[in-house]
């Protein structure tokens, strides 16, 4: 799966919409064709300087009120450009040059985008032919499985720097459907796995140079490491789970991350108020 951009074609940056067009996009996503008050739903609203006001409940509001963008202070074009950088996996250093923002601001906003990553179809289990493996990131482990037919993945962070049979057993019970073919390496915690869960288990012995059964899942971990290194340079243990979730969402639903419009269309909603 290719998810990285090595350079920034200038025509992409020239296509950043005007502030008026971005606000129109956001307005259509949140309100449809008719603007209304987020609190009382009345359509009797009018513009008051840079905000709106409801004639019925007299409450002022903006386009981003009652959304996860409510505290945004960035100009709309700068925000849109920053979101474009995040969606195109631009490294932090390159995003600084493109947006003019500080590293602290960019990391803060990249985290905000991660936390609001849309999840239209939470993938809870895999079936058919599944490859499974584990990898280690500083003081935490990650267990992952890939459906080699549907090309979907599930990754879960283990809050310790080693994997036990219990962790593997719980992952399989939660995320591998009965009757599947399960391919792993020869690690001891996979031994006898078919005795407690109805799968057909086959394994590679890496010391014998057997890699065919787990090549795709090992490639997933290679992509994950490159994803972290290129985009964030490094990730603290406390944020590893969120970054892994971002990677999983990118892998399983690339259509959502195609451009800022699609991301906002799937992630931006009005939060009901009392």
UniProtKB/TrEMBL annotation:
Domain of life of the native organism: Bacteria
ISXO2-like transposase domain location: 125-252
InterPro entries: Tnp_ISXO2-like (IPR024445), Transposase_Zn_ribbon (IPR024442)
Listed name of the protein: ISXO2-like transposase domain-containing protein
Protein source organism: Candidatus Portnoybacteria bacterium CG_4_9_14_3_um_filter_40_10
